[in-house]
Amino acid sequence: MFNKNKNFKIDKAKAFIDSLDYWENINLRIALIRNTNAKISDQEAYDQALVEYKNTDQLYYQLNKVLKTGLPI
User: What's the average model confidence in pLDDT over 3-20?
Assistant: First the structure.
């Protein structure tokens, strides 16, 4: 994306998270939770995603960690 103002940096991860609807947000959280613990059941991951839904800072942190390092959360 072309950025005319070099002092203005777009945070792509935040923009992506902000663009998600409810179910996309929940599904991303489930994927990140499963990335951390492959032995967790689908229901447990779903339940945890519901509990964490309103914590956008946590989702942002987890997504950035995975994107920048490739390592599990």
Answer: 76
